[in-house]
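Complex 355.
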Amino acid sequence: MVKNIAVIRGDGIGPEIVNETLKVLDKVAELYGHTFNYTDVDMGGCAIDKYGDPLPESELKKCVQSDSVLLGAVGGNKWNDVPGNMRPEKGLLRLRAGMGVYSNNRPAKIWPQLADASPLKKSIVEQGIDFIIVRELIGGIYFGEHKTEGDTATDVLKYNETEIERIGRIGFETAQKRNKKLCSVEKSNVLDSSRLWKKIMHKLAEEYPDVELSDMLVDNCAMQIVKNPAQFDVIVTENMFGDILSDEASMITGSIGMIPSSSLGASSRGLYEPIHGSAPDIAGKDIANPIGTILSAAMMLRFSFDMPNEADAVENAVSAYLDAGYRTADIMSEGMTRVGCKQCGALIIENIRKG
Ligand code: NAD
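Predicted structure with nicotinamide-adenine-dinucleotide bound:
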């Protein structure tokens, strides 16, 4: 297969972690007979320096015309004083809107080799934690009317059936590619928007008979994520609930450098990036952990390119690397061998096998 990937290295550690990830993709292409073409896209602080704009139209066009986008991270102190609408992060918002991605998908996975890094009790971690939160990204209370009149402030939470249905489909389709269990999270005991959410999810369930749908109230879900996270496969929820629950879920895994994410819309084209930022404090030192970006590329293979075996090969290589006792500084522990960003990438590549 031939796939065209728009590559945004961005700022800070972005170029270092993306370079290692492209080498991983090249290895996958070599083993499985694919061709991955890369188009460089300038976004963030580096684009402000070059064009005076965090994401010029010409750069956005390259992303929209690609099969998917791989992003490192953007931002840094150097651009803190530029006007708000020209800040590096504006490029990110413009990219999400320009690509029409309305679903943010974040896995919460504890690698058994890193179980000690989790703040949860060992007995809970040992049950195995590996689920994805599918969060609606461009609707709900964050996008409703906001106003303050006198001593009263109002934020409107609104969803229509179409908005719920399209995110629901991503939830069901994600579950189909995993263990076929979908938990719909809402607050239907109080909110009309949640009652509509629940109704649409159950209507959709008829189209996905292979997926087992369950319902959970958001307050209970917040508790269950720390009490019994092994019960979850895929969680689908609205924007604000997803924002809060996905941060809670990323904390239980213990390392920000390990977590990938994807954002998807109506087509198979997605935006793939680690959840961390540009880490200016460690940029250029060859100590960043590239695994969050490498696993984002694995998500790209699985969810946008329909290459599950290739995605498994990358994830298995990360696991084998951890098994061998190698650690970047952020996840270093006693008895392990410390490696830098480049060596981490090279060791993961050595472990990629055609399954
Ligand atoms: P950050 O995620 O960049 O860093 C937080 C801490 O985690 C730092 O100590 C950093 O060294 C460490 N860290 C992050 N990623 C790491 C990795 N891969 N390996 C090892 N250690 C890692 O958050 P911040 O410091 O709050 O933000 C720095 C800049 O990044 C800001 O300009 C912010 O706006 C931007 N940012 C960008 C994105 C994005 O591009 N999607 C997301 C968040 C923050």
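The chain has a mean pLDDT of 95.
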